[in-house]
Write a structure and sequence with these properties.
By secondary structure, the chain is α/β, with parallel strands linked by helices. The chain contains 16 helices and 24 strands. About 30% of the residues lie in helices and about 25% in strands. Strands 7-9-10-4-11-12 form a six-stranded mixed β-sheet, sandwiched between helices. Strands 18-21-22-15-23-24 form a six-stranded mixed β-sheet, with helices on both faces.
Length: about 550
């Protein structure tokens, strides 16, 4: 798929004082979630006063577990409504209730002012509600056109599937949003983002009044996220309401009209766009004040260079790359998938070692060809795959001790007393939520698993930490904890290098950003000399980032 026009919406960086809504224009009026919505034509108000979707006091339990407890939600026509909360807050349960997959134990649901409690999936579609679930429904073994028409195939008078009409409809819907698909292409060849766009096109038709998306950008690149938000902005402008389920607040800045916040299955806040600052939304999500999401460093000691790379090259991956990491500094690599940012980061840890070039660590030339070499040089590494960072079937204690057994041993025997003390210290330092140090790693949440992996390298006193997408799929509370830990690590005179597909993360946490495009470093952006639009332009090839004088 290709873009036929430039995206007009860019994912924004989170800032504690930035509003998650439009920069200009009047705020939508607040509407209480209680009280039955007026039916169309009853003289109680204009059509815009009737919610396209309202849930009132909805509860749902699975056995002894209460997934939702008296949740109310109101989505107005032609608005972008965000449903946010940490993992397990109940967001996906609400989507499945709306879709007719689950039945509520109690409560009411109204669509355009009419009772629609516990609908069937077929009824949901007839009401003009399109649902795109978190798990992809695209079948990779089928073509694009077959996936598009599956389950709603147009037929000829003789009852045969009319593939020509299906192709025409696919082309018409794609053209509406400035995208193109090859109908014959196997769906397996589509990127993750393109598959999600195909799912959206499939559920859109002339009856559409509401589009519901559940965590649509969970594995998107920055460019794919921008494209999706552009499409959703155009839908909203055409009169379609959007209910957008996410815990990534930064990506909805500039488009959201209202926000509903869930925590532990309850509605803890319904905010208009002027009220929904990131700081307030995050505090509601986690139930505590997290302070600054992206803590700034002290700046002390940054004159000393910790790690350098000069003219490093790996055939087919990156070419003539230079960069530095100073003590006390957090550096971020950003770029589109396959353009070099992650590949260069892996080279530091010895996973994709360069063919030529020079690298130094603490002033000494190093030649790192494996993770063992990296560890010996004082470099810790966390993959983007959580399964590679921890041993899920082992305990918290064993995972934290994995890299530090030599340090905690005497005469070849592990000093269990010292090990226990260090493990307890790390659990407290990292705020790892676990029943005990003996709990299996697989019992932890995604955010706590990531903190566990980070703690393993803290235990061996690493000097440089290299992390790939360190907060992907992690709740906002755990993200704040991870950012705090990385900043504290750097402030102790060490270095942090992050390769991330989340541009807002890079803008927020990094002291210096290096941009990559087509295997080359195309820009260096210190914190005080950068704008997000400039970084975005650099990684998409529109212009090179200017090097500071």
């Amino acid at each position: 798929m290709k873009r036929t026009e430039k995206a007009s919406i860019e994912a924004g960086a989170v800032d504690g004082g930035t509003v998650l809504g439009r920069e200009h224009g009047p705020a939508p009026s607040r509407v209480p979630s209680s009280g039955r919505p007026p039916a169309p034509g009853d003289g109680s108000g204009v059509e815009g006063d009737v919610a396209v979707l309202e849930l009132r006091d909805v509860s749902k339990s699975f056995g002894a577990t209460a997934a939702l407890r008296g949740v109310s939600l109101r989505v107005r026509p032609a608005t972008f409504h965000a449903l946010v909360g940490e993992n397990g807050a109940g967001k996906s349960t609400i989507v499945k209730l709306i879709a007719g997959i689950h039945r509520a134990d109690q409560g009411s649901m109204y669509v355009n002012g009419r009772d629609a409690a516990n609908p069937s999936p077929a009824m949901v579609r007839s009401l003009g509600i399109g649902i795109v679930h978190q798990d992809s429904s695209v079948l990779p073994g089928f073509s694009v056109e077959r996936n598009f028409s599956l389950g709603q195939e147009p037929t000829t008078q003789l009852g045969w599937i009319n593939f020509g009409k299906a192709r025409e409809e696919l082309a018409a819907r794609a053209k509406r949003f400035g995208v193109e698909f090859d109908p014959k292409m196997p769906a397996a060849e589509l990127s993750t983002g393109n598959r999600k766009v195909l799912e959206i096109l499939k559920v859109l038709d002339e009856r559409q009044k509401l589009l519901v998306l559940d965590e649509p950008t969970a594995s998107f690149t920055t460019e794919e996220t921008r494209q999706l938000l552009r499409i959703l902005a155009e839908l909203k402008a055409s009169g379609v309401a959007v209910l957008y389920v996410t815990h990534r607040l930064e990506e909805i800045e500039g488009i959201v009209d209202s926000v509903t916040v869930l925590r532990d299955g309850t509605n803890v806040g319904s905010l208009g766009h002027d009220e929904a600052t990131p700081h307030r939304v995050i505090s509601l999500m986690v139930g505590r004040d997290l302070g600054e999401m992206y803590p700034r460093g002290s700046g002390e000691g940054r004159a000393e260079v910790l790690y350098t790379a000069a003219g490093i090259n790996r055939r087919g991956s990156f070419d003539q790359v230079d960069f530095e990491v100073h003590r006390g500094e957090i550096v971020a690599f950003v770029g589109l998938t396959g353009h070099g940012s992650f590949e260069v980061a892996r080279s530091i840890a010895g996973l994709q070692p360069p063919d030529r070039g020079t690298c130094t660590m603490a002033g000494e030339r190093v030649r790192i060809r494996s993770l063992r070499d990296a560890r010996g040089a004082g470099i810790g590494f966390l993959s983007e795959s959580r399964a590679e960072n921890i041993l899920r079937v082992r305990s918290v204690r064993e995972n934290l001790a994995l890299a530090a057994l030599e340090n905690w041993s005497r005469f070849g025997f592990v000093d269990s007393q010292r090990e226990g003390a260090q493990v307890r210290h790390l659990i407290e330092l990292l705020s790892i939520r676990c029943r005990s140090a003996s709990a299996k790693a697989r019992s932890l949440s995604g955010g706590n698993q990531q903190k566990l992996a980070l703690g393993r390298w803290l235990a061996v006193d690493s000097q440089l930490m290299v992390l790939l997408d360190p907060t992907a799929g992690v709740d906002v509370g755990a993200r704040a904890d991870i950012y705090r830990l990385l900043r504290e690590f750097a402030d102790r005179g060490r270095g942090v290098l992050i390769a991330t597909s989340d541009l807002a993360e890079a803008m927020g946490i990094a002291d210096t950003i290096y941009a990559f495009y087509k295997g080359k470093r195309v820009g260096m952006f210190p914190r005080e000399q950068r704008q997000q639009a400039d970084v975005l332009a650099a990684i998409t090839g529109h212009r090179e980032g200017e090097e500071p004088a």
